[in-house]
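Example 5.3 — tRNA pseudouridine synthase
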Amino acid sequence: MGSVQAAGSVRARYLVYFQYVGTDFNGVAAVRGTQRAVGVQNYLEEAAERLNSVVPVRFTISSRTDAGVHALSNAAHLDVQRRSGRPPFPPEVLAEALNTHLRHPAIRVLRAFRVPSDFHARHAATSRTYLYRLVTGCHRPAELPVFERNLCWTLQADCLDVAAMQEAAQHLLGTHDFSAFQSAGSPVPSPVRTLRRVSVSPGQASPLVTPEESRKLRFWSLEFESQSFLYRQVRRMTAVLVAVGLGALAPAQVKTILESRDPLGKHQARVAPPHGLFLKSVLYGSLGAASTLQGPQFGSHK
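Solution (predicted C-alpha cells):
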C-alpha cells in the first residue's frame, strides 16, 4: 500500500469522510486565486498543511455540492507523504489531526481509512444518496424556528399531497435520459442515469422545536439514490415533486416532463433552494447499504 518515493519516504493514500453545514461556503470545492468566496475544501487543505507532508496535500472530492448545500457524509481521498524514516499516519491519528487544525466550526472529519494508491474517491463510488428536507405550516420564513433555518425549504402551504408525490416519483425510477432535470453549465458525456431509489415520507424536526411549534409545522423528507447525478438534478426533481404535492402538476405530467428531455420547460426549469439539500452518504464497493462510517471493505493490499 502506498509507494516508496525518493529518499525513502512513503506516500500513503487515505479515504476521508467529512460533514459540513454548507451555509457559509461557496460549495465544497476549493476556490482558488484571490476571490473572497471559499469552499469546504479550502479549510480541509489548510488543516492538512499541518501534517507536514513532503508534497502539498490535495483533497479529491467524491461529490461536489453547491453553495448552501450541506453534507451529512461526503468523502475524499488524499495522499500524505511523510519525511524519510517516518511511518504513515494511522487513519485515526490522521482524522484527529485534521479535526484539531480545522479552523471552521461547521466542518468535521468523521473517519479516515487507508486505501490502495490507485483508489479514486469520485470514480470508485458505487452509490450516492441525497436527502431533501421540506416544511409546511409555516406561512412566513420568520415563523420557522431558528434551529431549522437554512436547513429546510419552507413551503407556504399547510399540507402536501404526499400520495401524489409518491406516485409521481415512480416515473423517475430506473434508467432514463434525465436531460429535462439537468441545469446548464456542467456538460457530461451522457445524460443517462439510473435512479435506484426515491422516497417521500414524513421527516423529523429538530428536537429543539417547541411542542407548540411542532403542532403546526410538519417536516417532510425526500431521498434519492443513484451512482451519480447530473448537475442540480436532485434539486430540479425535488421542485417538480413539490409542484405535484401542491397540486400544480398531476403525477402523470412528471413522466411527460421526463420524456420531453427539455430542461427549459415551465416546471422542470425550477430549482429547489440549496439550503434544504444534504448529501447523506457515499458508498464504495462491497460496503453496500451499511453505514459509510464502517469504512470500505477492500481486499488485502500490500
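Remark. The longest strand covers residues 70-81.
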